[in-house]
Amino acid sequence: MEQEKPISINWRKFVQLIRKTHISKALLFFVLGLSFVQAIAGLIVPWLTKDLVDLLSIANWRWEIFALLIGAFVTQGLFGALSTYYLALLGEKVVANLRQMLWNKILVLPVSYFDEQRTGEIVSRINNDTAIIKNLITEHLVTLFSSMISVIGAIFILFYLDWQMTLTMFIAIPVVFAVMRPMGRKMYQISRRLQQRTAELSSLLTQVISEIRLVKSYTAEPIERENGNREIKNIFTYGLKEAKVIAILQPLMSLVMMFVLVVIIGYGGMRVATGALTAGELVAFILYLFQIITPMVMMARFFTSLQKAMGATERLVQILEVEEEEDREESKPIEPNQPIVIDRLSFAYSTSEEILKDVSFVIPAGKVTAIVGPSGSGKSTLFALIERFYSPSRGEIRLGETPIDQFRLRDWRGMIGYVLQDSPLLAGTVRDNICYGMGREVTDEELMEAAKLAHADGFIKELPEGYNTEVGERGVKLSGGQRQRIAIARAILHNPQILMLDEATSNLDSTSEQVVQEALHNLMKGRTTLVIAHRLATVVDADQIIVLEQGRVTGQGTHEELLQTHPLYQQLVHHQFRMNQIEKEEEEKVDRIVQ
Question: What is the pLDDT of residue 586?
């Protein structure tokens, strides 16, 4: 069973978390002031009612008492409305600042964190868990302050009116705390599990909806229906457990308070009969009793909501405590016209064997270096290390004589243009995606020139709204080749000093590939370029070729040199030659059919 953490520790974490949101102290004290006035006005009402009842009993009507009573009612209502509004404002500010803080944190977390966490769970923490904390602040926190004032004030006045009846009333307090403490612990445990289940459902929904084509193409709807129904049932089960605790806690509290009320009315009636109390004092005593009962119920609800907030706080703090990507405030100046040195580089993911093993070679400045090898040999991992998505297990990467981790992360990545094999697009327009990440306004001429060089301007002009056409989530409204060309246009627009192409032409047909190869060839001039490619057209023209096998460098040289000396490279070239022949034969068949 999951070990419960002390409530006091979680409470401290909650306070620390709220402080990090830079909550406005002026607004907080203003809301507390409004609640204070509301509570004091509420305490005045029963006292004036006592005077009014006593005056009526002796047929001595006084308008000023009635006017003061109406004024107390109006003050209580007005300040209550104002405190409710500004309390909501305070809660919204806290949750907005908290979400902003979490979002800013998530953007600087390392890629390895996202390898281990599911997207839906992260989204659930930002949305659902922060909403729980907002609910605590908006509906309960300052209400607790006014409730405490009401309870303390009412108790003092009750002792003044009749200390014997007040002591009789206090028999309920040990009972209340005896009930609230174990129930509160139970609520904390249930709440944590409920929030976890909610996050798991969000993760499942995000995954299935984002990959709905995969689900439908493999007719996996029954499996996903079962998975979704299971998570929904889990949430229902824990929600029902929470409802059971509340169903026990609140009626029990009400029962205890009602019992006290009956005792007070009975005992008070006897004291009025003996003349120890006036009728007005008994009425005031009962009203003050309600001034205690209602806040006590609110405090019980606050305690319940606090347990939920503790679970949410723990999950949010987990994100905020994750170590960020290492970045430097000061950075050495970057001189891009230097070779990139891969020196005895080794790397393993946290739960796997080494992907790269003692890899060493030099990438000449301003030259094209191609990385070839079978799938799983570590080519894309090498690119990820150069991008500093991960840190090497051993060895280092240098630009000239300077290790790349000596440069500020933003400056280093700003030098690199990275085109992936499956280039991602964001929901938005074609223009948005080509200009993504640009820190300045891009002119139409620059945009169209980049698209033209990437051989993308032709199909873009044929789209319904040209560059303002929406591409859909993850670019689903475009073909794979079209998405790839937009990604290449993005890289061209950024004009990077270092260019990394991970199968950048893999999704293009032979005609488009030839044109894009020419565009990339122009883009490569004078730039340090790394290419992962299986296509001979890319490999043959490289200044040097690195062959990776099972994470090790087994060959290095030009196309002609490796073709004569390296068996694996010979196989790769032979296989590619056969593929090219098949493609050529297929194109000739299509041409004959068309003719």
Answer: 56
In the chain, which stretches have pLDDT less than 50?
1-9
Residue 310 sits at φ, ψ, to 5 deg, of: -65, -40
Count of CB atoms situated within 10 Å of the CB of 505: 26
DSSP assignment of 252-288, as one string? HHHHHHHHHHHHHHHHHHHHHHHTSS-HHHHHHHHHH
pLDDT at 346: 92
Question: Dihedral sign, CA of 178, 182, 185, 191?
Answer: negative
Q: What is the pLDDT of residue 341?
A: 92
Q: Is 356 helix (H, G, I), strand (E, B) or coil?
A: strand
How far apart CA 290 and CA 308 sit, in angstroms, is 27
Long-range CB contacts (< 8 A, 24+ apart) of 204-207?
Answer: 204/120, 204/228, 204/231, 205/120, 206/118, 206/119, 206/120, 206/123, 207/118, 207/119, 207/120
Name the residue ranges covered by the structural domains of the chain: 9-320, 340-594
The pLDDT score that the predictor gives to residue 4 is: 42
- C-alpha 29/C-alpha 522 separation (Å) is 64
CB 31 within 8 A of CB 86: yes
**Tokens describing residue 452:** 């033209």
> Residue 321: exposed, middle, or buried by beta-carbon count in 10 A (0-12, 13-18, 19+)?
exposed
Three-point CA angle 203, 209, 212, nearest 5°: 130
**Residue among 494, 495, 478 at smallest CA distance from 424:** 478
Cα(18)–Cα(24) distance, rounded to whole angstroms?
A: 11
The edge-to-edge listing of strands for the beta sheet with 354-363 is 354-363, 340-348, 394-399, 402-403
CA 466 to chain centre: 34
Among the four given CATH numbers 3.40.1170.60, 3.40.50.300, 3.40.50.970, 3.90.470.10, the one describing domain 340-594: 3.40.50.300
Q: Going by C-beta distance under 8 Å and a sequence separation of 6 or more, which residues neighbour residue 108?
A: 324, 325, 327
How many whole angstroms separate alpha carbon 46 and alpha carbon 291? 9
The identity of residue 552, as a single letter, is R
Residue 562 and residue 559: Cα distance in Å, rounded? Answer: 5
- How far is C-alpha 63 from the geometric centre of its chain's CA atoms? 60
Cα 174 from Cα 189, distance rounded (Å): 24
The answer to whether domain 9-320 and domain 340-594 are alike in fold is no
Structure tokens at 42: 């509420």
Q: Which residues are catalytic?
A: 503
Tell the CATH superfamily of the 9-320 domain. ABC transporter type 1, transmembrane domain (1.20.1560.10)
Query: Which amino acid is it at 262?
Result: V
Place of tokens 């889990």: 234
Q: What SS3 state is found at 392?
A: coil
Contacts of 506 (CB under 8 A, 6+ apart): 421, 484, 534, 535
Instruction: Tell me which H or E stretch contains 115.
Output: helix 111-116
What the block records as the tokens of 59 is 């047929």
